[in-house]
Amino acid sequence: MVIKKMKFTFKLMHMALQTTTNSVAKSQKTALKQVSKKNEKLLDRGSEVVIKAKNINVHHGNNQSTFSTLNLRSDLLDGLQNIHITQPTIIQMLGIPLVLQKKNVFCAAQTGSGKTLVYVTPIIQKLGNEVEAGFIGRLSRPRVLVLSPTRELASQILKVFKHFSHYCRFRSVGVIGQNQKKWAKDYVKGLVDVVVGTPSTILKWNQKGLLNFSDVRYVVFDEADTLMDDNFRNTTSEFLKLLDCESDSKNGTNIQFILTAATLPPKGVLGRYQEFIPDLQVCQSNLHKVLPHIKHSFMKTRQDQKSELLINKLTLFLSQSDKKCIIFCNTSKSCNWVSAKLDELKIDHTKLHGDMNPQIRLQSYKKFTDGKTRLMISTDIASRGLDSNDITLVVNFDCPFNATDYIHRSGRTGRAASCFSKNEEVLTFVTQNKEFLFAKKVQEAAKKNKCLEGIHSKKNSINESMPKLNGLK
């Protein structure tokens, strides 16, 4: 009898607990629906967020100076004149004098502001002055090392040095990934002044005895923030340790370091460089801001509608313009999928991502830069440093993971040499609530001319700052 009463009591308790649990679950479900409806209403206010371009010379400001005021050699000025560059940008005005004064400097400025010339022109000037003072080079011992995170960027930097070699006396060579041809190895065995390449390849050539660092006087880390991220940190640190040993053996002759980036890295990254680079000065201009002189559009859509919208946009672009376009995807798989869609419609294009054979990658990139095709589909491998003045449209087929990637991607257009064409646009497809709210943040930052939040977040800064909500229906 007692046992029956206990069983009945437990049954009542279980029923009460289940009723409470169901009530809580129902309340939570109702709350989630309310949040979802609230955000759907927010998204339904407009299918597009548009930030109009402003008539602002963001790279030059009110600067009316010329390169001659920077005390550059006449042969360098001739080289600049030949490519129609006569007025220095703000970062060039700040950085070139510091490099000429042999300062260790970190130059950080907006994408497209001409940071490459900040180190190329003063370094070439120094090389020329040293030769005139009686310097005699030695075999396989370059005086300048330029490191970049990608082969494509290294190839572009080398092209700039090659241009000036027609006006100034120096020799440059690229040590770029799979480019292990006999002529390149024979070239570095001779007299060479400038070596450009990726860190791992230059280190390998040094370890094999093909390159000797004993005469190195100038070292450049282009895209320095990327060269200290998780993918490059060990190689870059090894490189710095090796150069530190070389510097110690030079009887007080120090190596000058020049670092460039489109974003100023956090203190932790700067600290790693400062462990090896003494008195590192920072000069910066208009950092972490949305480029105001180009149009930014965020289009709300569904995932299954993006390809149709992309095709419509590209069809219109190709019919109305003779310029170029880059389409960014977040993964190699997405890049290949978009490429297959364009192939189906026989739309000529090229693609670029990290899973491709290095040699094919370089050929693909060269096809785009040489103008043999006007469309390129790429992952973020093409968002760092790559320069082309005739890109007027950037399409983010996949919304970038964070604010840093957005700034780098959008900087492929609106470069210093073309900042008044007034036709540049960055179009981003958004398919989730968090992406649309990110678009509103970009709009707010542009409106108030403030820095964009989320720079240098290693994780998805959009996801970190927004609640997890249902995707658009």
From TrEMBL:
PROSITE patterns the UniProt entry points to: HELICASE_ATP_BIND_1, HELICASE_CTER, Q_MOTIF
Domain Helicase ATP-binding: 96-282
Pfam families: DEAD, Helicase_C
EC nos: 3.6.4.13
Sequence ranges assigned to domain DEAD-box RNA helicase Q in this UniProt record: 65-93
Segments forming domain Helicase C-terminal: 310-463
Hydrolase found in the keyword field: yes
Keyword list, A-Z: ATP-binding, Helicase, Hydrolase, Nucleotide-binding
Protein name: RNA helicase
